Amino acid sequence: MAEPISRMIDRGAKIRWHCDVSVNHHGDADLKRIAKAKCGDYRLANKHPPCRIPGCPGIVTFKDCSSQFAVPLDTITDRDDAWWALNEKRRAHLKALGYRMELGKWVAPVKEAPA
Questions:
Q1: Please, what is the end-to-end C-alpha distance for the chain in angstroms?
Q2: 51-75 pLDDT, tens per residue?
């Protein structure tokens, strides 16, 4: 079972968020702020809020970076139907916005210069 935020705070966990659209969009999760807004029993596993960068259509995933190797907090994997459903939904949404996949990364649509 996924660890609640209150336990992460108690052990001084370093949790980072990462955007699924841009590798340049990432940062430290403010666990105390999240706990205050959601409650101490809230869990970050399988939660995918919007990217914090204005205008970015991405969603974020969380990793525990408290030790030498980052550990993803999501409990669903590519062996689960929920993982495939989420990825198909994300792919359809981003393609509708004009994004394309190139070398395994999402590429934003090119904005045309005004005439």
A1: 56
A2: 999 989 999 999 999 988 999 999 9
